[in-house]
Amino acid sequence: MIREIQEPAEKQKIARTILEALPDWFGIEESREGYIKESANLPFFVIGSGPEDLATVKELYERGVKNGVEGLYVVGKEELHRMEAGLSDEFDCALVAPTGALVCPYELTFAAVGNAMDNGVELLLNFAVTSIDDDGSRYTVTAADGRKITASCVVNCAGIYADEVARMAGDDSIKITPRRGEYILLDKAEGNCCSHTIFRTPTKMGKGILISPTVDGTLILGPTSEDIEDKEDKSVTQEGIDRILSQVRPEMPKVNTGSVIRSFTGLRAVGNTGDFIINNPFGRFVNVAAIESPGLSSSPAIGVYVAEMVRKLTGDPARKQSHVRTRRSLHWFRDLSHEEKTKLIASEPAYGHMICRCESVTEGEIIYAITQNPKATDMDGIKRRTRTQMGHCQGGFCGPFITKILADTMGIPFEKVTKHGRESYLNVGKTK
Ligand SMILES: Cc1cc2nc3c(=O)[nH]c(=O)nc-3n(C[C@H](O)[C@H](O)[C@H](O)COP(=O)(O)OP(=O)(O)OC[C@H]3O[C@@H](n4cnc5c(N)ncnc54)[C@H](O)[C@@H]3O)c2cc1C
After folding, report:
1. What angle do helix axes 29-39 and 8-20 make, rounded to 10 degrees?
2. How much distance in Å is there from the Cα of 50 to the middle of ligand 1?
3. Chain mean pLDDT for the chain
4. Which of 28, 307, 369, 392 is deepest in the core (most CB within 10 A)?
5. Do the domain assignments include residue 386?
6. Range scoring the smallest mean pLDDT among 173-177, 362-366, 413-417, 427-431
């Protein structure tokens, strides 16, 4: 159903309902009020699934076009259900954004860090910064375990702890509030339930829960959105799961929400300015704080922007003459043809030794993850690089084998292998 709104006050009322429900995107009061004011003069259509769920998809379309998003279009019921057959019959229109895309957040991060290391960057793990001192020309950054590094410039990009790290350097202008987002991940059997990331049209309760395929063929549902106090509270709550399921079930009745393989929580770093905080408060200290959603999508642009800031602050250091520009995908082995795999296995038998049967991952791929930058050093590191432990058994079968491969390849005792660093040991010793 599409209806044109002509009354300016009604347009503004609808615009306010939507924009105030999207604090992640329109949290800055001044610009939000500007958009609402402007909406009185814009062509205005309301599109939705019924009188109780009218949504201003067209208004979002207009804004997208204005912001330079290419290829946006609105579809009616027939086209919508052709695109997404599993959607409830209740829905009769949608805004389609074909330039939107999915990315694997782990692989993107590994690729960026790994390429930096291939070009000479040193990665210090478990380096929890506890103090930052400036002698006027160099900073000394000290970790909880006493390790120290010195640097001419410091970039604070500590996520939910960016306010505390800023304070260590003398900047107390930042306050970060953790915003909990809970997710449910469904088995690959449900991965084909939809082929697009599906957002509900916003209501005054928020932009709602997404239903989305992942790059690995599973289906992800979430996130919730709740401001909390404790920066370490990554618990998954019954209320959060109920909220996700109560929205998804009526939207996609055929999704088998019983096939959950994992639920988890992430904390968005919400700042006190309503926007990303990227500044140079003094000296050669740079804040890249409050990078809340969509910080991952924004990260390439943020990187270029911050690199330029650092370049100016450090007096334009000489560029490297040459650098490694390419990187092999972490999943290169599974992309080989049968013939190529057979040939490789003949020379490297570890690629013929299946370790993870749920996700079909070989010993060779696990060793590759332990030996390539950034090198995996614990079980979660292997998991995020290879997908072992991410299937049905969640590591129940392959876990002990991976522990042994880690121990052997790193040259450490079996019982010193951890789940995620520090004291997170998995085994106390051998029983026989
Ligand atoms: C539920 C949820 C959904 C999201 N959805 C999307 C999305 O759909 N699209 C999108 O683009 N983005 C999304 N995001 C946002 C995205 O994940 C973040 O914007 C991004 O991860 C922020 O990157 P960052 O480097 O600033 O912080 P982080 O990724 O949090 O990294 C900060 C790092 O600093 C380290 N650190 C903290 N304190 C210290 C210290 N004292 N010493 C040393 N190290 C320290 C931490 O261990 C961590 O490694 C989502 C986030 C959440 C939580």
Report:
1. 150
2. 38
3. 89
4. 369
5. yes
6. 427-431
Same domain, 166 and 46: no
pLDDT at 47 over 80: no
Q: In which domain, by residue range, is 352 found?
A: 338-416
CA distance 317 to 337: 45
Same domain (yes/no): 278, 171: yes
CATH number of the domain bearing residue 204? 3.30.9.10
Determine if ligand 1 sits within 6 Å of the CB of residue 223. yes
More confident residue, 30 or 217: 217
We report the CATH number of the domain holding residue 111 as 3.50.50.60
> What is the number of domains present in the chain?
4
Structure tokens at 259: 């096939």
Reported confidence tier of residue 53, pLDDT bands at 50, 70, 90: very low
pLDDT grade, residue 334 (50/70/90)?
Answer: confident
Q: What gap in Å lies between CA 329 and CA 369, rounded to an integer?
A: 11
Residue 316 zone, left/alpha/beta (φ > 0; ψ -120 to 50; rest) = left
Is the beta carbon of 266 within 6 A of some atom in ligand 1? Answer: yes
Q: Ligand 1, closest atom to CA 158?
A: 34
Does residue 346 fall inside a structural domain?
yes
Across the strands, what pairs with 210?
A: 222
Asked if residue 92 and residue 7 are part of one domain, the reply reads: yes
Give the three-class secondary structure for 417.
coil
